[in-house]
UniProtKB/TrEMBL annotation:
Residues 128-347 form the ABC transmembrane type-1 domain. Keywords: Cell inner membrane, Cell membrane, Membrane, Transmembrane, Transmembrane helix, Transport. PROSITE patterns: ABC_TM1 (PS50928). It comes from Sagittula stellata (strain ATCC 700073 / DSM 11524 / E-37). The chain crosses the membrane at residues 9-30, 130-151, 163-189, 219-242, 277-304, 324-350. This is ABC peptide transporter, inner membrane subunit. It holds the Pfam family BPD_transp_1. It is found in: Cell inner membrane; Cell membrane. It is a multi-pass membrane protein. Its main location: membrane. Belongs to the binding-protein-dependent transport system permease family. It comes from the Bacteria. The lineage of its organism: Bacteria, Pseudomonadati, Pseudomonadota, Alphaproteobacteria, Rhodobacterales. The keyword Transferase does not apply. GO terms for cellular component: plasma membrane.
Amino acid sequence: MAAYILRRFLLIIPTLLGIMIFNFVLVQFVPGGPVEQVLAKMQGQGDVTAGFSGGSQDMAEETFGSDSDYVGARGLPKEFIEELEREFGFDKPPLERFLDMMWNYMRFDFGESYFRSISVWDLVLEKMPVSISLGLWSTLIAYLVSIPLGIRKAIKDGTSFDTYTSALIIVAYAIPGFLFAILLLVLFAGGSYWQIFPLRGLTSDGFENFSLFGKIVDYFWHITLPVLASTISGFATLTLLTKNSFLDEIKKQYVMTARAKGVSERKVLYGHVFRNAMLIVIAGLPAVFIGVFFGSSLIIETIFSLDGLGRLGFEAAVARDYPVIFGTLYFFGLMGLLVNILSDLMYVVIDPRIDFESREG
């Protein structure tokens, strides 16, 4: 097992490097780099990307130092533009910039945002509470509801209970999260009916002056609707996964043998079936959480006026804030690869009979 884990850790290096190379090359051809953004704003043109057509100049030349002028740069001194390029580091060849960036990232030095005068680390930490709130509570609620419901559906397979709950689950899965979020706002946040929950933000004004109990109540009061909107689709998927996993185990020979020996149905289900059926569900918990956490919904954050990682990623992409884009990509990519290894270890912890080493051999 140790050799398997070591190989998985070593594979992180080429995988992460491939992710960074692909995205770095792709960015070279995306219209409207940081220099273009600054020049367009100085000329009062707003978002520079609106001025590009499909057949415009090659972005690699426009953004990274060709002889042609920048869009929006007419009338500005060439020396000023060159100084702007040096400030952003675009006076260096792409390969040199990439190698410098990766060297810094290996030391977890992600630099400073181009447009916010704050380090990428500080910026991510500033947005982290929102994403942790949505990711943690969405995952927890999904597991607390889905596992008991999935087990019950497996036991009652084919009954009216299974049919009705399956219909509800399909409806829940089909409803987009942002549409459900709007529905919650209309019903419970003063849209047209009841003003029960706040409309925006993670905390109330004056939060720092509340008592400990008051802070806890205020926090949960604010996150209730966003968490419900984030949970709905994941809840449906996890419930069906639990049910199908239980059904597969219930039909196996060892279950029939246990029943034939007179073992109680409860002991058969929770003493024999549960551990094997829950293997795929529980072992995937780290991956599920990291997916919800780092895949923060931009639309849900926008609807509820939450300033999290989803909005940060969108704003960085629009502004071509490369240190934020690549810094978060590197960090979250590394986290995702480590979580995949953790998921494999969870399989072994839950069921020691699993041996990845022998399977590879």
